[in-house]
Amino acid sequence: IDYLGMMMAVQGAFADRSKLSSLQARAEKLEAASSKVLGGDKSKIRKIEELKETIKVTKDAKNVAIREYERIKDNNRFEVERLDGERRADFMNMMKGFVVNQVGYAEKISNVWAKVAEETSQYDREKHIS
User: Fold this and answer.
1) Which of 77, 111, 108 is CA-nearest to residue 6?
2) Predicted pLDDT of residue 38
3) This prediction's pTM
4) What does the pLDDT read at residue 75?
5) Alpha-carbon distance 91 to 96, whole Å?
6) What is the pLDDT of residue 91?
7) Could you give the angle at the alpha carbon of 78 between the alpha carbons of 91 and 13, nearest 5°?
8) What is d(CA 42, CA 64) in angstroms, rounded to the nearest whole number?
9) S-S: 69 plus which of 9, 12, 16, 61, CB 3.0-4.6 Å?
10) pLDDT in the model for residue 130
11) DSSP assignment of the chain
């Protein structure tokens, strides 16, 4: 299971979210400040546009991180299910082997007892004949 990859994606998503919140707050302050200046301040307007572009890029990066997190999560779920299936199959094969082994052992014991019974009955017949 790729825990490291999943944690990196989660950490990236949180960092992007924090950065996004900070950028949005800066953009709102600049917009509020430029609206107070009559006619607007061109440098502040340019900064606002740059911040909006940075926010867009950061949102895109956040979406990529979320998709990567979901991909890793789905992959981990698939791996856990696959390992669980393999574990069950191994256990069933072990149980089948155990049962076959016990049946073989029971057959050997049965053959030994059948031979003992046969020898005992021959001994008993020989005893009655003499």
Assistant:
1) 77
2) 47
3) 0.46
4) 81
5) 9
6) 93
7) 140
8) 33
9) 9
10) 56
11) --HHHHHHHHHHHHHHHHHHHHHHHHHHHHHHHHHHSTT--HHHHHHHHHHHHHHHHHHHHHHHHHHHHHHHHHHHHHHHHHHHHHHHHHHHHHHHHHHHHHHHHHHHHHHHHHHHHHHHHHHHHHHHH-
99's tokens: 């049962």
Write the single-letter amino acid at 10: V
> Taking a C-beta distance cutoff of 8 angstroms, is the pair 13, 69 a contact?
yes
**Cα(35)–Cα(118) distance, integer angstroms:** 112
pLDDT, residue 35, reads 60
CB 1 within 8 A of CB 80: yes
Residues of the chain where predicted confidence (pLDDT) is lower than 70: 1-7, 9-10, 12-14, 16-17, 31, 33-41, 44, 124-130
23 in Cβ contact with 58 (< 8 Å): yes
